[in-house]
């Protein structure tokens, strides 16, 4: 059988820096575990704009549709702030999500024991935290029409549309319930049914899917503002959080800080099964391009490496090897390995991006 294929789109800012460490990890699994991938690389975001004048070339889009999984670094940066909206780096990422139809965005927020002290919340509130946010990723206000800025009565008006069909809500709800069954068997769905019709529909459809096929899973509903509050008040009450595209964007950044650093959070974006049975998939760290630390070897590669662990688990059916990689990361953190984002100003010298990669590779070596 041919090796599974990976397309690496490292993108902008710290994207290429953290992705370099992922490439070494991929190499390790080839050398030591006989898990080989056919890896190709291409441009996305500002890097693609610089080369082609668009944030995602059509050829790159076509490649992304063909491979078994895409690994993405980060897009964007101040250099591109004044570009026309249609060619901004983020448009490249949104095009990938939309055209690959990656409707289920899995964002796990896990607090590693070694980092519980580092969260901005009290240790006992976050220690042992393990929640999974399932964010709808291909619809809602990110993509709804009409949209734009136009003139009305001599005044500019900005418009975006929050729009969800039943089918869109149903498929992401199923993804959340299926995942919950493999975890704590609880789903909390978040919307704003008190002020939005799309929220009323969301709540109705989630309830219908639950009654029809997932009555064994515990389901609750919260308004998203209350959900945000509960997430910082008592995050361990949650198992799977199901929410829409915009609320999911906000709630997942909030959840990230429970774990100590945005540099720790991976994500998987999954679509429908392809002909080979694997889901359409893209894996990316939740953090952005971090222009403030770009080029300084300071970036934490763990979120990107954990995203590759999610690829092993969700695309390649290599749960045991994903566990091995996650355990290696847990081990180096327990041993005190820290990049700058995981340290206070008085805590000594942080590891560089590559040094963090080194210690993770050493922990992997020790695991076989
Ligand atoms: C995310 C990011 C993206 C989003 C940006 C970069 C377009 O914030 O993945 O959370 O808003 O979805
Ligand atoms: Mg975001």
What's the topology here?
Elements: E1 5-11, H1 15-33, E2 38-42, H2 46-52, H3 58-66, E3 69-74, H4 89-99, E4 104-110, H5 123-126, E5 130-136, E6 144-152, E7 155-161, H6 166-181, E8 186-191, H7 197-213, E9 218-223, H8 224-233, E10 240-243, H9 245-258, E11 268-273, E12 279-283, H10 302-314, H11 319-334, H12 353-366
The protein binds 3-isopropylmalic acid and magnesium ion.
What does this structure look like?
The chain has twelve helices and twelve strands. The protein has 368 residues and is of the alpha/beta class. The protein has two domains: 1-109 and 262-368, Isopropylmalate Dehydrogenase, CATH 3.40.718.10; 130-258, Isopropylmalate Dehydrogenase, CATH 3.40.718.10. The strands form two sheets. The chain has a ten-stranded mixed beta sheet, sandwiched between helices. A hairpin with a 5-residue loop joins strand 11 and strand 12. Helix 1 packs parallel to helix 12 (353-366), helix 8 (224-233) runs parallel beside helix 9 (245-258) and helix 10 (302-314) runs antiparallel to helix 11. The longest helix is centred in the N-terminal third of the chain and has 19 residues, at 15-33. It starts with a strand and ends with a helix. The model has no long low-confidence stretch (mean pLDDT 96). The site of magnesium ion (MG) has 2 residues, from helix 9.
């Amino acid at each position: 059988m041919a090796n599974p294929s990976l397309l690496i789109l490292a993108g902008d800012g710290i994207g290429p820096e953290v992705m370099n460490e992922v490439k070494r990890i991929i190499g390790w699994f080839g050398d030591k575990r006989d898990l080989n991938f056919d890896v190709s690389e291409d441009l996305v975001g500002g890097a693609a704009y610089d080369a082609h004048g668009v944030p995602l070339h059509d050829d790159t889009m076509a490649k992304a549709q063909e491979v078994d999984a895409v690994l993405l670094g980060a897009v964007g940066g101040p250099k591109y702030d004044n570009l026309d909206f249609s060619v901004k780096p983020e448009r490249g990422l949104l095009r990938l999500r939309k055209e690959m139809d990656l409707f289920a965005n899995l964002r796990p927020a896990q607090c590693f024991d070694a980092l519980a002290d580092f969260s901005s919340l009290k240790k006992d509130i976050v220690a042992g935290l393990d929640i999974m946010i399932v964010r709808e990723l291909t619809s809602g206000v990110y993509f709804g029409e009409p949209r734009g800025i136009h003139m009305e009565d001599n005044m500019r008006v900005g418009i975006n549309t929050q729009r969800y069909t039943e089918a869109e809500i149903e498929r992401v709800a199923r993804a959340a319930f299926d995942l919950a069954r493999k975890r704590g068997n609880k789903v909390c769905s978040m919307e704003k049914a008190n002020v939005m019709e799309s929220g009323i529909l969301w709540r109705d459809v989630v309830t219908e899917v639950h009654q029809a096929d997932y009555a064994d899973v515990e389901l609750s509903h919260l308004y998203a503002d209350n959900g945000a509050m509960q997430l910082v008040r008592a995050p361990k009450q949650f198992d799977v959080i199901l929410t829409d595209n915009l609320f999911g964007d906000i709630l997942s950044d909030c959840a990230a800080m429970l774990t100590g650093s945005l540099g720790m959070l991976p994500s998987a974006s999954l679509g429908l099964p392809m002909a080979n049975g694997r889901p359409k998939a893209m894996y990316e760290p939740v953090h952005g391009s971090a222009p403030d630390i770009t080029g300084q070897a300071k970036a934490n590669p763990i979120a990107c490496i954990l995203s590759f662990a999610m690829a092993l688990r969700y695309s390649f059916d290599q749960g045991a090897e994903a566990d091995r990689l996650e355990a290696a990361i847990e081990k180096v953190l327990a041993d005190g390995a820290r990049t700058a984002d995981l340290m206070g100003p008085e805590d000594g010298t942080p590891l560089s991006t590559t040094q963090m990669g080194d210690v993770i590779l050493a922990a992997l070596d020790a695991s076989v």
